[in-house]
Q: What sequence folds into this?
């Protein structure tokens, strides 16, 4: 793999482990999958063999964004007025949409994954976690295998969350029978995927997370056995928590969801939950004490229209926080950079009602980079420094859009927002997107294949 020398960067947003900082008018050198050096005038003489020089004048270079929650398959059911959930509780909306999910085919899951990851790469995301919990019987068991195939095609660093649902509708879940699995089926396929794909080596491009969908749609044994498998194989755990289901869990088990998960061992430094917008301060403190993390998905909060996730309290209590797009059925896009801006602005909206101050804009960039890396258990990604993975994106700020903003690269994305694709996205030392094109791929062909797969499904 070639190395790259980005010369005369207007700003590199570096992090040597002590927090984000701006390096002005510097070069950045990569060597294979990693960053070799950041500094002024790195090479005045002969470059290392195989190094390609890239003029980065005017560029702000950021660490690649790390997505910590998504449902790629939902790209095939977005922007549909008939599925508007703004007037429904989350549980009611799930009752409406799950029967539609059950009609998807294996090809749908593959092409929806290409669709989601392509959009993410265009907007600076270099590591994607997907919570794939939908396994219609008609689609088979190879759906995550196809997701890894899609990630390989695009060059995306991919963490696959193998989800599943085991509790039937007759016992109180929202899951139609064609999407149910047994606990044994779920655990066996998690083990197969770990054995086949999980790579613990530095700069790994493939990892697996054990991720039963959510407590309201699974038997207790599913969560207990999931935690046992994950800890036996040293992989991360994930599920949905705190998105309106706590009263259901309390009626069923005599305690709210956070207490329930802690009691059955589904909590700890190897575990992160998605959403958590309905949680009390005591529950957030409990999560902080156990080291359990949160993937905050800001854009679905607008649709829920109820409680806004208390990020200031999470920050004050020391919770580990990352950002996620969430599924396209509740977000309608896969643009994590847009979510970063939304996350900050949403907290500002309710600042006067909070017990704790809104974290500064730079912290939201941290949630989307080092925060996400920590949730996924990845000390090798999420920041720009020598020895770290060469995952980054660049914005050419020599545009009218950025006049008056260039003095503060750290706050730019959270406060101003970036309204266009990146000028370049690099993953694992390889440029995968530049000058409006996926390197080595025909976007129009990818588009046509995805549209054909979508058209073949009867909704």
A:
């Amino acid at each position: 793999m070639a190395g790259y020398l980005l010369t005369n960067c207007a700003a590199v947003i570096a992090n040597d482990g002590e927090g984000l900082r701006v390096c002005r008018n510097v070069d950045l050198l990569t060597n294979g999958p990693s960053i070799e050096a950041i500094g002024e005038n790195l090479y005045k003489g002969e470059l290392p063999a195989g190094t390609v020089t890239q003029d980065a004048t005017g560029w702000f270079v950021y660490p690649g964004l790390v997505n910590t929650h998504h449902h790629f398959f939902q790209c095939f059911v977005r922007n549909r007025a008939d599925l508007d959930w703004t007037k429904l509780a989350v549980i009611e909306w799930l009752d409406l949409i799950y029967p539609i999910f059950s009609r998807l085919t294996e090809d749908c899951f593959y092409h929806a994954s290409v669709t989601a990851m392509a959009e993410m790469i265009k907007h600076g995301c270099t590591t994607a976690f997907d919570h794939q919990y939908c396994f219609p019987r008609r689609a088979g068991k190879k759906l995550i295998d196809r997701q890894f195939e899609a990630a390989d095609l695009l060059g995306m660093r991919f963490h696959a969350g193998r989800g599943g649902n085991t509790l039937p509708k007759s016992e109180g879940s929202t899951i139609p029978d064609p999407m149910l699995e047994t606990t044994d089926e779920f655990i066996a396929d998690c083990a197969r995927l770990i054995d086949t794909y999980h790579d613990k080596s530095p700069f790994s491009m493939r990892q697996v997370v054990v991720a039963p969908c959510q407590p309201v749609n699974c038997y207790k044994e599913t969560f207990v056995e999931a935690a046992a498998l994950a800890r036996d194989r040293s992989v991360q755990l994930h599920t949905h928590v705190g998105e309106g289901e706590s009263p259901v869990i309390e009626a069923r088990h005599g305690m709210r969801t956070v207490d329930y998960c802690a009691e059955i061992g589904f909590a700890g430094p190897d575990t992160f939950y998605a959403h958590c917008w309905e949680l009390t301060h005591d529950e957030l403190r409990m999560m902080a004490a156990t080291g359990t993390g949160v993937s905050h998905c800001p854009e679905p909060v607008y649709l829920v229209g109820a409680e806004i996730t208390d990020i200031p309290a999470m920050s004050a209590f020391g919770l580990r926080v990352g950002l996620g797009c969430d599924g396209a059925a509740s977000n309608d896009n896969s643009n994590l950079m847009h979510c970063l801006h939304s996350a900050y602005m949403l907290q500002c909206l309710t600042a006067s009602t909070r017990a704790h101050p809104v974290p500064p804009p730079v912290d939201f960039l941290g949630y989307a980079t080092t925060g996400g890396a920590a949730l996924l258990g990845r000390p090798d990604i999420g920041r720009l420094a020598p020895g770290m993975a060469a995952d980054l994106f660049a914005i050419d700020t020599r545009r009218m859009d950025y006049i008056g903003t260039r003095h503060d690269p750290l706050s730019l994305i959270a406060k101003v927002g970036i309204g266009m694709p990146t000028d370049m996205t690099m993953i694992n030392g390889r440029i995968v997107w530049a000058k409006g094109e996926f390197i080595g791929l025909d976007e129009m062909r990818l588009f046509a294949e995805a549209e054909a797969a979508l058209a073949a499904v009867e909704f």
Notes: The radius of gyration is 21 Å.
